[in-house]
Design a protein that fits this description.
By secondary structure, this protein is mainly α. It is 43% helix and 10% strand. The protein is built from seven helices and two strands. It has a two-stranded antiparallel sheet. A hairpin with a 4-residue loop joins strand 1 and strand 2.
Length: 155
Amino acid sequence: MTAFKGTYADWKLIKSRSVVQIIFEVPLHEADAAYEVLGGMPAPATERWFGIAALAPKPAQPQPVVDKPLAGAKRDWRDMAPAQQAGIRCDEPAFVAFLKEERPDDWHEATDAAECVRMICGVSSRSELTTNHAARVIWHQLDTQYGAWKALEHA
């Protein structure tokens, strides 16, 4: 086997190396095959390059009609625009505590969480998080860091 399939799950900007990590998820029962195709664990001293291609979409199947979500029903976080995510986070007291603790220099220059997020992401409005690619990457990293901070220290 020379290929495996996976779903595009996330990506992360690595500023220190000027690269982006692209994360694909592989079903657990196919993980051994993917590991074999990749040649095992990465070796830090060598690089191995791989081609990534989109699979041809399956022919459209009739989709069942889905009712609109009920008022007050929760939406999946990944389905929300980054600007909406940032708006929700900025209203969370734990996110404010995270910014104060983990980004003290940015926090001291800001008047509130929204301004702090705009400064960190380099935008003048949170709506730019949806349209500005670099700002969106920075936002996703900040939100990921917040999730880790919250899980490790403040669950």
